[in-house]
Amino acid sequence: MPLPAELADRARDVLAGRVQPVPARDAATVVLLRPGPEVYLLRRKATMAFAAGAYVFPGGSVDARDTDQAVAWAGPSPAAWGKIFKADERLARGLVCAAVRETFEESGVLLAGHGPDSVVADTTGDDWEADRLALIDRSLGFADFLARRGLVLRTDLLKAWAHWITPEIEHKRFDTRFFVAVLPEGQRTRDVGGEADRVVWQRPADALAGDFFLMPPTRATLAELAAYDDLDGVLAARREIVTIMPRAVEIEGEMRLVTS
Predict the structure, then answer these.
(1) Any alpha helices (H) in 75-210, and if so which ranges?
(2) Residues lower than pLDDT 70 in the chain
(3) pLDDT, tens digit, for every residue of 103-113?
(4) Which has the least CB within 10 A, 12, 58, 186, 241?
(5) What is the total count of domains within the chain?
(6) What predicted TM-score, i.e. pTM, was given to this entire model?
(7) 32: domain CATH number?
């Protein structure tokens, strides 16, 4: 994809060594699925500093408290997730916790239950909304939230899907692991989250064909999901997690972003 003029100038500066890339923050994102299959997409507000106006999956940065070992855990261990994502155990714990926390913050969907074989059926009450807002403003830690409600994090409801790193030319950068998860039975998504002004459920192929502004990782993920006819196919897919970081190259005087 061609780069806009301002970003093209920055790309030339980065490539020439005149500007140092900013560090990428660890982050997690979750592709919520329901029968169709359909995916849940949020449109980021036009005022956002990163990816303004883009349709994205729920997700965000790893918070320091996401690595808290007090989080009740059911399913694949942090060590197992670390092996999948080539991360140490502490970071792997943070990535999984961030994935579940951010999904609840941005969609109201909670991948947790009162035991390893249960999942919360409804998170639409006023008390749930108060906790969601407290998590967003960081007045409530995720481990404390789960402990207070007697909940266990259901890591087995997540499936590792991809690993993307924001190009070095960007002003804000994220080192993001992608997960997929099926919307738990009985739970409903919110109409909007704090950083979004619109949400939609769409078949991946329709989202790709529609008039949506999509960042390269979102577009690529939707294209991969469009190949599956049902949820079982997605969940059974064999995935090798390969790190992808698009890079800027100059082709016949035009700066472009490429993934190969």
Answers:
(1) 78-85, 89-107, 126-136, 142-149, 204-209
(2) 46-51, 192-194, 260
(3) 999 999 999 99
(4) 186
(5) 1
(6) 0.92
(7) 3.90.79.10
